[in-house]
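Sharing a chain and its predicted structure for anyone who wants a worked example. Both blocks are below, sequence first, tokens second.
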Amino acid sequence: MKTLNLKDVEDYIEQNIGTFHQKRIESLDGLELKEVLGKKNPYLFKAKYVLTAEQIVKGITDAHISSNEETIFGDWLEGLAIFINGKVYGGKKSGITGIDLEFDKDGTRFIVNIKSGPNWGNSRQVPGMIEDFKRAKKTLRTSNSRLNIIAVNGCCYGKVKNPDKGDYFKYCGQRFWEFVSNDPNLYTKIIEPLGHKAKEKNDDFVKSYSQMINRFTREFANDFCRTDGSIDWEKLVIFNSGENKKDH
């Protein structure tokens, strides 16, 4: 085990945070109004007394962007955690399905599935992760039957009251970052470097976002507004939920 050099972490973040911002913009460039519109509840907009095309467009795109950014940044944080662990314990990205990180500590092989936050899994996803852990243990023990293996679900933020889940441990927030780095304060130390050129990068995103909102608003008005400018709710509901719509 080595002591983590925070300068290495700061350099990694500075060199790689641009990837996150670039993927945010790319996710906008590939977005299509009708694709997103087909996945949202038109009745909700009517119930909320939404009257303008821009309100609907901003509502559906902001919800999509928020969810998408969580995924993109979660993947980025996974890479950061693996980098940090590699510096301290020599850990590496695992080649086993469902396992993100493998490393050895005190005679134990840790296999880690990394998620963004603690509330990531539903009733089917969590059992799926447990099965991945079981298969990984079986795979690793084919070459070393006496290997002591501990499975961990690591979450980059949040808290959990009871980390011992029986089949695995769940470490969140401070506990997770200490687990991968051996530094109990790392979870606060990484927050400042993450803001590297954040305003500059966000300005680029806002420009792309504004252009997309304008484009989507014009498209929505052309397809789902009457000549007097009011929203044609029946046409919108038919597009979203009708059995004969051509788009789906």
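Comments welcome. Residues 6-241 form one domain.
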